[in-house]
Structure formats: C-alpha cells, structure tokens
Amino acid sequence: MNPPPNLTVVHLGATGAVGSVVVQALLAMPELQRLSLLGRRPLDGADDSRVEQHTVDIFDSSTYAGRLKGHQVAICTLGVGQPSKISREDFLAIDRDAVLAFATACREAGVEHFQLLSSVGTNSESRSFYLRTKGELEEGLKALGFARLSLFRPSMILTPTSRYGFSQAVTLKVWPWLSLGLFGPLSKFRGVRVEQLGRAIAANAGLVERNRVEVLHWDEIKELDPRPAS
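Predicted structure:
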C-alpha cells in the first residue's frame, strides 16, 4: 500500500502526551507536505518549515474553520487527562462536543480521513459515563460520513513518567506485567507505550484505501507501528 506523495494533515490536541508523539512521527515522514496544529497553546519543539501553528478556541469552530481546507487527514488527540478532576458538564464539552464540532468543520471543509484517539470499551450504551460519552462521540463521527474514519481504542497508555501523581505511577509500573497474561480477545486490554501509539496514528494517516470505518485496538496498533518491537 503506497502512501500519498504529498500528505497534508490538520491536528487538534497536539500538546498532549500522545499528540506530541504523533507530531514528531509525522515530521519524520518524507511524504508529509503540510501539518497544521490547532490548540489552546503552541507545541514546543515543532520547528519545521512544514508546520503551521494556530492558537484557537476549541469551543468555537469559527476560530479555526477557515484553516481546514486543503487537508487530506484530520487527527484529534484532544481529551481530558483526568476526567475525575472536572465536572461532567466540562468533560462533555471537551471530550465530546468540542471534538464533534472540529470533525463537523473538517467534513464541511472537505477533509476525507478523520482519526480519533478514543478508548477501549467505548460504547454509547455503556453504564460508564466516560465510555458512554466516548461512544456518543464515535456515533456522531460515523454520522458525518467521512470517506474514512479511524477510531483508535487503546487501553492503558504507558508514558515514561507519571503525569498525574502516585496512583498513575503505580499503574504504570504494574500494567506491563498484567499485559503479559492478556491473549486472544483480551489482548485489546494490553497497555500500549505512548511512543508506539503515536507512531501508529501517524503511520495510519499515510495509508490510503482502507475500510470506511476502522476500529483499532492493541493488535492493530502494534501492526501499524513502523518500528520493530524492542
């Protein structure tokens, strides 16, 4: 499968742990022609002639809608790092409504491929508020009718250091060992290194002619990673 010769990408949420890795992986791709980063603040370390950075209001699509035309792929890694630390209303506004508004504006601007960082277990009928919200978002994205929609559903994202205190630090230590016992249908619950996930999202942006809607769990993410397992 050959990548497009001139890849143009717009990315919302590039300053997060996953988003920043996606950016570096995209910049390593020779086919990348243009990368537009939209966010509430600029991303450090993205000094490249192919990069354009724009500070926008994520809750007001009119602040960025005019910058979307001409992009083939949209990537969204926007999300709340600690959902338990904010109200349900604020979580809905960021993780569902702001993302759906971005996707709607992308669709109207002619973007053909949309990639979302979602979560394992996502289901619009889930009893979990978090997973139900993610499921409602995914259903909304499907209804927009993108030529291609890629839904990344990782389980625990393993970062090099803890970003959210002691409990996450313990989880980061334990999860890799728990993952060793997850096989078959349970493999989707394996932890994925943030570098591997970011590279997979970037690599997937460079592929063409895949399924209209694709759901990617641990196995698919591992397959997409261009680097061999260490």
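Summary: The chain is about 35% helix and 20% strand.
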